[in-house]
User: Fold these one by one.
Assistant:
Number 1:
Amino acid sequence: MQIRIIVQFVLILLLSTAPLALGQEGKVPGTSYSTALELGVGEHSFYLERGDTHYFSVRLEKDDTLYLQLRSAPNQDFDMALISPDRDIIELSIRATGFTERITYTASSSGLYYIVVFPFGASSGAYSLLIEISKPRVTTVTSIVTVASYVTLTQRELRDVVIVMTRESYRTVTVTSQEVIGRGLEVLGWSILSLAIIAVAVLIRDGLMRARPVTVSGEKVKESETGG
């Protein structure tokens, strides 16, 4: 009778640990890039056999920051690598036995990135993989740009006498854009240049540089563009 109770207890224990051996929620890690298991944000648990390598994937947008944390038993040594969509090594975490592995990376482009978990030496057992993704913070940048334009005023008087005058006019345009917080001064300088280009486009759109009738000294003249 006691033997039967012990056998039942062992069976219950094996069944309770079976999901961990198969992976969290029955998910099976991939054995190559083509079979990599796609994971989302959260903590995932798996079991790594001696000599095996697990392949996972995660989708990132440009400027997303990925945080990875790999935990295993104190007497085991598991390492991990982050691989780019082009399958180039981005970063390795290969700390000593018992230490938690960590990788933090800000995506330079959107795509499917790979996480590879592998044992060192004869290590094997259960591990947890924590995945966190943070979106970039943005701020609204407002810039006031002043653009000069030159227009020619032409007036035809009696006896075909033509009077030509060139007038310089100015207009200010307010342009807003969104920039990622934390970028360097070099990027900021480029942003200001971009705003100036946008301002010129706004002027053209508004028809500032199109010909239009104006009045000079009480007489009606014709204004046309000669330069921008």
Note: The CA atoms of residues 148 and 170 lie 5 Å apart.
Number 2:
Amino acid sequence: MKVERVTRDTLTVVTEGEEETRELGARLGALLRPGDVVALHGNLGAGKTRLIQGIARGMGIERPVTSPTFILMNVYTGPDGRTLCHVDTYRLHDPVEEGYELGLDQWLGGEDVCVVEWAERIRPLLPKDHIWVEIVILGENTRRFTFHGRGERARARVRALARALAPPEARADFSPVPRRI
């Protein structure tokens, strides 16, 4: 796993293989708290489900995590009581309208950690504060993940992920509190 770029609002990471993608997800999952929303955007086969499997692992969830493509949503509870709501909007015909009818707007930003596959299809339902993740296929096993913090809470999670991925000697550079020299 290689960190390519870090800014105030953005983190870009390249993974080589499914296990690195899951590890990236696990690092993020350990940081997520109730009410956090992670919106995933990427082509078929980009690694959305693998990232969510890692998020679940990072939250301590041991049950197998599969994509809810035909059932819309799976809910998993971790040992610490945090709940992961995994949403897949790929099969919705009128995603925004059906999303409102299904109450997705109430789930997103509620009491659970919510991760949405094909999030671009329900963009109006997303809370203003969320992590937007663009996933690009670079090669057979190589993926680029760009995490955008949209809102102060999401930016704090992206910065925390950047710190978690940085080598120990560089972690102080990602401190949210300005350092005095």
Note: Confidence is low (pLDDT under 50) at residues 177-181.
Number 3:
Amino acid sequence: MLAFSSLVYPLTSPAFAFNDSVHDSISAEQEKLLNGEPLVMVDGLQDGVTGITGHIFIAASPKKVWDMLTDYNNHKNYIPKMVDSRLISDNGVEAVMVETGRTRIFIFQKTVSITAKIRGEYLKHLYFQQITGDFKVYHGAWTLEEYRHGQGTFLTYKSEVKPDFFAPQFVIKFVQKHDFPAILLAMKKKAESSLNALAN
């Protein structure tokens, strides 16, 4: 998802693993996730590339979370600062989609767009890489991990980005730290509300 505003390289593994045995003695980070708080880490990498890692717990099955992630035509309707999102093609193995996001940095406003190819392993991983757009580097992955037999899903996002326009790395890091938690919370709300709608 555009946060400066998802393919082929799975990035490094999540900062911590989630499984049933871990939750017998959960860490402070995991407790925050289970309480609904998103965790976002932003790192400056080599050659002006910024690494972003985000974690959130969603009280919905991996199927509900997957459906939310892959509903590309609807992202613009609930993800903050996204002004357009469209599926261009899907051959059953690889999809191509377009997203446009708009963000404000102090008094400046910037609109960025990408066309990305996406492929994945159903209910497990979704890998994305820019084909064309406003970035020199834009690739990453979403990872879904089921929690306690359908009680919820830990969703992890990892990406590496570098814009194809002038923007100091500290500005990129500021935008990601400011915008991405709201994106994760919006996705959590969407997946959970879709579950509640079915229950009613």
Note: Confidence is low (pLDDT under 50) at residues 3-24.
